Amino acid sequence: MVWCLTFSERAIGKKQTVAQMVKTTRQERSMVKSLSFFLFFLSLAPSPVNSIQAKDITRHTISLAWQQPEKANGVILEYEVKYYEKDQNERSYRIVKTLSRNTDIKGLTPLTSYVFHVRARTAAGYGEFSAPFEFMTNSGEWSIAQIPVMMSQGH
C-alpha cells in the first residue's frame, strides 16, 4: 500500500492521525487507527534585526525602536531584547520580551553605557541576535529628546 499525503500550513504542529488526513476504506482505516504522528514543516527562523534606534534617553530609561527583520519568514510572534552594561561584556545580561517593535528599558544606571541586541521569533523559532548597539544614559532628569537647541547667528 502506498500513501500520498499533502499537508497545509494549518496542520503545522498539530497532532493528526493518518485516518484523519487520508480518506480510506473502512478496512484501511482500521489498520491505521492507532498510528499518529506530529507534523512539522521545515521553515527558516527570521533574519537578524538590522538596526536599533534610541528614541529617548534619560538617567534611568532608554526607549528603543527597530524595524522588522528583512526576512521575517513568517509571522513575528515576539521580539527579545538582550542588554547589559558595556563593561560587563555579556557576563550579566537581562532579557525583555515584547510584541511590538519598541520598548522602554527602565531601571538603568545614570551615565552608563549599555549594549543592546534584538532578535525576532516566529513559529520556526528565534532568529539570530542583531549586531550590538550601544547607548549611554544621561546624568540629568531631562531627556535627550527634550534638550533645547540654542541657535545663534554670527555677528
From TrEMBL:
The enzyme's E.C. designation: 2.7.10.1
Gene Ontology terms for molecular function: ATP binding; transmembrane-ephrin receptor activity
Statement: the UniProt record of this protein carries the keyword Zinc-finger: no
Entry membrane topology: Single-pass type I membrane protein
Keyword Ribonucleoprotein: no
Domain of life: Eukaryota
BP GO annotations: axon guidance
Keywords: ATP-binding, Cell membrane, Kinase, Membrane, Nucleotide-binding, Phosphoprotein, Receptor, Transferase, Transmembrane, Transmembrane helix
Principal subcellular localisation of the protein: membrane
GO CC, any one term: dendrite
Subcellular location(s) per record: Cell membrane
Span of domain Fibronectin type-III: 45-140
Enzyme class: transferase
PANTHER family the UniProt entry points to: EPH RECEPTOR A5, EPHRIN TYPE-A RECEPTOR 4
Name of protein: receptor protein-tyrosine kinase
Protein's organism: Hucho hucho (huchen)
Lineage of producing organism: Eukaryota, Metazoa, Chordata, Craniata, Vertebrata
